[in-house]
Amino acid sequence: MVSGIKRRNQETEYDSLIVTGQEFFKFPLYSFNIIWNINIRIIGGSYFRLLPSFVILKLMRKAVENGYTPIVYLHPSDIDDKFSPILMSQMTGLGLGLRLKWGIHQKLWSTGTESSTKKLEIILQEFPNKGPLVWALPR
Q1: How far apart are CA 120 and CA 30, in angstroms?
Q2: Cα 37 to the center of its chain, rounded Å
Q3: pLDDT tens for residues 39-65?
Q4: Per the domain annotation, does 129 fall within a domain?
Q5: What is the model's pTM?
Q6: Does 103 reside within a domain?
Q7: From CA 121, how far away is CA 129, in angstroms rounded?
Q8: Radius of gyration (Cα) for the chain, nearest Å?
């Protein structure tokens, strides 16, 4: 066990389960325990945008050491450095609480997008793109 994470001992990059008579493939995600029960996954989203590339690379190397395939999943908004939020004045149909909530979410979604493309370039130097996950499945 490393940081509360069970080491994978699979020969494949995925786990296979039978669900309602059909084979279901699951690509386990590496999760790193930073303190108490707080885990981070570095596959994308806020962690990808907010963490520096050297931390992401370190966590990806730990994933490999523990038998996990490092997976990066990005939504187009994660790399949109020209994010255009909905303005408060455009949310007139919403109450103040919902407008504030959306404003906070939009700030979170846009934070770090300007560095995401460069981070991805750095990561791809060490971890080349292997293509869609379906390519790892049996044919």
Answers
A1: 18
A2: 18
A3: 877 777 888 888 899 999 998 998 888
A4: yes
A5: 0.73
A6: no
A7: 11
A8: 18
